[in-house]
Design goal:
This protein has 166 residues and is α/β, with parallel strands linked by helices. The protein is built from 6 helices and 5 strands; from the N terminus they run E-H-E-H-E-H-E-H-E-H-H. The longest helix is centred in the middle third of the chain and has 17 residues. The chain starts with 6 loop residues before the first strand and ends in a 5-residue tail after the last helix. The chain binds 4'-phosphopantetheine. The site of 4'-phosphopantetheine has 10 residues, from strand 1, helix 3 and helix 4.
Length: 166
């Protein structure tokens, strides 16, 4: 009998990707046969980077991970999970506050696609304070955000967030 590939999607805004995201992707890549990093293209939310730019950055940061790909999507993650034949959705939890919102998200997604499990991974303690918002705030006030983002993306992120152009 042919063994089914175990696919998970890892949805998020990734505006921009952080080392916390990367750690979760690497851990997901060990647990699943394929990880599809799904970048939300949300027209109503102002992002510093376009969905295409975020996808390109993730592809670059994941180039050493053969079972990871990045795509952009619009609409519901539950629909994307079905489209991709994913068995799971991956999300990271840094705190109780995250846990509460992730629980709500997981319950809604289970209602929409009961066959897709939500897998929550606890963020490593050293990444507990890292977020895309923290990167943007540090950049805005002239702080060093480089330890928070993948090294291969630091310059590109700096160009956009600090210099205001590429
Ligand atoms: O990185 P973020 O901003 O915390 O990611 C949030 C994301 C993209 C996972 C969430 O907003 C999402 O799933 N949006 C798509 C719409 C959807 O499926 N909502 C949940 C059911 S109402």
């Amino acid at each position: 009998m042919m063994k089914m590939e175990r696919i998970c999607i890892y949805p998020g805004s990734f505006d921009p990707p952080t080392v916390g995201h990367m750690d979760l992707i690497r851990r997901g890549a060990k647990l699943f046969d394929r990880v599809v990093v799904a970048v939300l293209h949300n027209v109503s939310k102002h992002c510093a980077f376009t969905a295409q730019e975020r996808v390109e950055m993730l592809r670059k940061a994941c180039c050493d991970l053969p079972n990871v790909e990045a795509v952009s999507f619009e609409g519901l993650t539950a629909d994307l999970a079905r489209q991709m034949h994913a068995c799971a959705m991956l999300r990271g939890v840094r705190s109780i506050k995250d846990y509460e919102s992730e629980m709500t998200l997981a319950q809604l997604n289970t209602m929409l696609a009961p066959e897709v499990e939500t897998v929550l991974l606890l963020t490593r303690p050293e990444h507990g304070c890292i977020s895309s918002s923290a990167v943007k705030e540090l950049a805005h006030f002239g702080g060093d955000f480089s330890p928070l983002v993948p090294a291969c993306l630091a310059e590109r992120i700096k160009q956009r967030l600090v210099c205001g152009h590429d």
